[in-house]
Specification:
Oligomer: single chain
Number of domains: 2
Low-confidence stretches: none
Radius of gyration: 31 Å
Mean pLDDT: 91
Number of helices: 2
Length: about 140
């Protein structure tokens, strides 16, 4: 296997930049793997949770049937159970929207910070240049 060799810079800031680039390149490569792993974990967790609940319901239903327990409920109880389920789904939908909005707002804040950091660097470069020009004699 052939590896790319980059000449080692001799100047400290070039070395910093090179190493920072390597570090963040590695982070960017790993991010999709983390995302996929978390997605897989969430799917597995949801599947296990669903399976546990459905199994518990089936076990209780089988017990009630074999024991001869009447499981019929009045229409008002059935309606209440259905209504609670609908409200839980609505609450989860609102929660999802709030979380997504918070993520979007955070992303925008990071983007704004990044833009401001670039502008701040530009201002500092101008400030440094004026300081340097005031203290270092010009050569003719």
């Amino acid at each position: 296997m052939m590896s790319k060799t980059t000449p080692e810079p001799k100047e400290i800031y070039a070395t910093y930049k090179q190493n920072v680039a390597k570090y963040f390149d590695d982070i960017e490569k790993a991010a999709p793997q983390y995302l996929q792993s978390i997605t897989n974990l969430q799917q597995e967790y949801t599947s296990a949770w669903r399976n546990a609940i459905e199994s518990a319901i089936s076990l209780q239903q089988e017990f009630a049937t074999k024991a001869g327990i009447n499981t019929n409920m009045p229409a008002t109880v059935i309606k209440a159970v259905n209504d609670v389920t609908e409200e839980m789904i609505k609450a989860r939908t609102v929660q999802n929207k709030v979380v997504l909005a918070a993520i979007d707002a955070t992303k925008q804040n990071i983007k704004t910070f990044n833009e401001n950091a670039k502008a701040f660097v530009g201002l500092n470069e101008n400030l440094y240049q004026s300081w340097i020009s005031a203290w270092i004699p010009t050569r003719n």
